[in-house]
Write a structure and sequence with these properties.
alpha/beta, two-stranded antiparallel ribbon, 8 strands, 38% helix
Length: 220
């Protein structure tokens, strides 16, 4: 039992981010802690979080970490992150930086979450621009795909798209369990001659990307 506790993933949850926070976030965190056997660190207004547990049982593998501030959905991300160092999303990211948590989950301001991760945790080596990935279902059972980018970047260079493909490939292989992932480039047609210059350059980079291993490039 002690060994299981040591190996249990520690997830910092932004309890103040998302609709009907913190109550709905706490409820989801409690369910995740039980079903996934993970340790949850609820980050937010400790007084409001403690009030929830006056009426609900508190799991043993759940810890409250106080954060005094919150980033509102209508705030500009970078400005808010810098102006509110004690915001729940900042405190959650700091827990990962301090090795007190393995990952952060937030249902709040996605721009703030991205900015906080970038400023506090930095980028992976070789990655110039972070991206938000979303797992999309398909008509085939068990054949989901990961789509990058879904909101972090308004404009992207060809090099960024190549890096998104690399991150998506790694995620597909090691998280989704796809042995030989295929990379699709979203375009106005499937022919390589179609699309704007960024798409054409991206296709050329992907066709010669040695760091993607065996690449199956699909034009969508």
């Amino acid at each position: 039992m002690a060994e299981t506790a040591l190996n249990r993933a520690r997830i910092a949850v932004d309890a103040m981010g998302g609709d009907y926070a913190p109550n709905e976030i706490i409820a989801g965190s409690m369910r995740a802690s039980e079903e996934l056997d993970v340790e949850v660190l609820l980050v937010g207004d400790s007084e409001r979080i403690e009030a929830y547990f006056q009426h609900h049982p508190r799991p043993k593998n759940l810890t409250i970490v106080h954060a005094e501030e919150v980033v509102a959905m209508d705030e500009e991300p970078i400005t808010a992150i810098r102006r509110k160092p004690a915001a729940s999303i900042n405190v959650a990211m700091d827990l990962v930086k301090q090795n007190r948590a393995d990952a952060v989950v937030s249902a709040g301001h996605s721009g703030a979450a991205m900015a906080a991760a970038l400023l506090r945790l930095g980028r992976l080596k070789g990655i110039d621009r972070p991206a938000i990935g979303a797992v999309f279902p398909t008509m085939l059972a068990g054949k989901s795909v990961i789509v990058l980018d879904v909101g972090a970047n308004v404009d992207s260079r060809a090099k960024y798209l190549e890096q998104f493909a690399l991150m998506g490939t790694v995620y597909s292989k090691y998280v989704m369990g796809i042995e030989n992932p295929k990379v699709g480039l979203l375009n106005i047609g499937e022919e390589a001659i179609k699309g704007n210059e960024v798409i054409k350059q991206s296709g050329e980079l992907l066709r010669h990307a040695s760091n993607l291993g065996q690449l199956n490039l699909l034009w969508l």
